[in-house]
Amino acid sequence: MKIHTLKRTCWIAIVISVISLILTAINIWAYIKNKWYLLLYSLNLESLGEGNFIFVGGGTDEWAANVPSEWIEQVLDYCDGFDNSYLFQSKNPARFLEYLDHPVMRKSVLCTTIETNRFYPDIMRNAPLPRERAIVMQEIANYGIPTYVTCEPLMQFDLAELVELVGMCSPQQVNIGRNSRYDITLPEPTADEVKMLKAELEKFTKVEVKANAYCWMRKIRGNKYPSPITSSPY
């Protein structure tokens, strides 16, 4: 009985050891695979192709003040490795100035958001003032780099002042868009005010109205031209 019990115990120990080795190997492989995937992701080894116009970082602000410089440099270096054109956008365009001599800028468009000429502190918080952004974009345009402006989400504005800020940027194109966050209520302009803005901007640049702002572009009944904004509560 003791011999059989000993043999049974040995076989159980062997089976447990084999299972442990298998599990260890699986865990090691999973660890290596995860690290490899993380490495691939961090290096972004996906080909960007060629002949494309790519909006880089559309879901985030790569140029925010708290983004490390080395991260920005890695993105720019990677983009420069492909024969494409790129669009970089930021509410902090002053950060662009640090990289104007990077080779990728020769095939890039720089864009900032100017959603209003006013400052709504509870909404815009730590973002640079719209005029500060416009001044920086003016410097970038004078440097010879193409610029865009996006007025999204467009908020209540003063017509002459907003047109002035956008004009300072010398944009090749201006995009007009509406608030797409249904959980946030913003002070929006009227449809007539937006039409007046579009008409003024089209005097010196191309204007694209995004699909979410089509409702502002419906035909005005009665007057052909809406009345301009004449006063501001701020």
Structure report:
The protein is of the alpha/beta class. Helix content is 39%, strand content 12%. It is built from 6 helices and 6 strands, in the order αβαββααβαβαβ. The chain has helices at 2-43, 69-80, 121-124, 130-142, 159-168, 191-201, and strands at 53-56, 85-90, 108-113, 147-151, 173-176, 206-209. The protein has a 6-stranded parallel beta sheet with strand order 1-2-3-4-5-6, covered by helices on one side. Helix 5 packs parallel to helix 6. The longest helix has 42 residues, at 2-43. It is elongated.
Ranges where pLDDT stays below 50 over 5 or more residues in a row are 36-41, 220-234
Please identify the structural class as seen in this structure: alpha/beta
Query: How many β-strand runs?
Result: 6
User: Outline, from the CA principal axes?
Assistant: elongated
N-to-C series of helices and strands = HEHEEHHEHEHE
Taking strands numbered 1, 2, ... along the chain, how are they ordered across the largest sheet? Answer: 1-2-3-4-5-6
